[in-house]
């Protein structure tokens, strides 16, 4: 049986993620945040803890494109987080949650008329966000 220990770094990382619900963070962004706080948490430790949180269902991991860093989002074990789509801005890289009834109707159409089950929580639409278009 595997024994897991809670560490101060693990607690600090979880606290950071909980303070930013719905936000998407890369390991590099998290490391940079802690460096600004004068807290030295190694990159390997951050990745290891994030993967543990993913396994526990507290964090969702997004792999968007080959070569891009994975994004992590605190979901706190809530299943409802899978019920939205994502928009990724190709200019600033921001990942945005989107709930859209039109796309949910498309999901139903794909399933009923084509026998295809769409994984909504992993669906990402690429384009340019409102801020970058201005």
Short summary of the structure?
This protein has five helices and five strands; from the N terminus they run αααββββαβα. It has 134 residues and is an alpha+beta fold. Helix 1 (8-18) crosses helix 3 and helix 2 (27-36) packs across helix 3.
What does this structure look like?
- It is built from 5 helices and 5 strands.
- With 134 residues, it is of the alpha+beta class.
- It has 2 domains: 8-78, Winged helix-like DNA-binding domain superfamily/Winged helix DNA-binding domain (Arc Repressor Mutant, subunit A); 84-133, Ferric-uptake regulator, C-terminal dimerisarion domain (Dna Ligase, domain 1), CATH 3.30.1490.
- It has a 3-stranded mixed beta sheet, with no helix packed on it. A two-stranded antiparallel sheet has the order 1-2.
- A hairpin with an 8-residue loop joins β1 (59-62) and β2 (71-74).
- The longest helix has 14 residues, at 101-114.
- The N and C termini lie far apart (55 Å).
- The model has no long low-confidence stretch (mean pLDDT 83).
């Amino acid at each position: 049986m595997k024994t897991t220990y809670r560490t101060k770094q693990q607690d600090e990382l979880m606290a950071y993620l909980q303070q930013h619900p719905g936000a998407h963070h890369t390991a590099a962004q998290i490391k940079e945040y802690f460096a600004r706080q004068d807290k030295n948490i190694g990159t390997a430790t951050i990745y290891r803890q994030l993967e543990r949180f993913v396994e526990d269902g507290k964090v969702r991991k997004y792999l968007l494109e080959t070569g891009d860093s994975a994004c992590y989002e605190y979901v706190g074990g809530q299943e409802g987080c899978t019920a939205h789509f994502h928009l990724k801005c190709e200019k600033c890289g921001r990942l945005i949650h989107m709930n859209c009834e039109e796309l949910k109707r498309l999901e139903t159409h794909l399933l009923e008329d084509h026998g295809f089950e769409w994984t909504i929580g992993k669906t990402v639409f690429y384009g340019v966000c409102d801020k970058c278009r201005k």
